[in-house]
Predict the structure.
Amino acid sequence: MQNSKTKIMVEGAIMIALATVLSYIKVFEAPMGGSVTAFSQVPIVIYGYRHGFKWGAFVGVVHGILQMLLQGLGNFAYVKGVMAYFILIFLDYVIAFAVLGIGGALFRNLKKPTIGVALGAFVASLLRFACHFTSGVTIWGEYADGWKSVWIYSLGYNGFYMLFECIITIVGAMAYSLVIKNKIKN
């Protein structure tokens, strides 16, 4: 039993490292945060698909904290107040990346793994977008100058890069599934 837990934890560490490295390969970077990366969400989604909600969420949280520490600390200079710091930490990092592992786990019981992992990637990306959208409305709204409303600003800003990130994640997760001949479960 311990050996399998060890394997699951080692695989999680490898997936976090892979996702972190891929997050530095940016296809597009938005001016005030957010980017389209080269498949950086895929390792966390696949891990969640392979090991379920609990492990997927855990690895997603660890990855989110690393993202904040390695690439996001500068964002704290742009928000004001303790509540804004909590929203930034949880909605832009901790929860936003935890849902990648959770979303990946949602459709793991489908008979066609490629479809399951694709749906998981879609839902994971949608949930992550919801986190960033909410953060955009609550703490980043002061940057909505020239937009009709803070809601439209957050939808447009976060929706733009997350749409492409979602497409790339779905393609990457499906490709992974097909390459290993639909054997992405244990």
Observations:
- The radius of gyration is 16 Å.
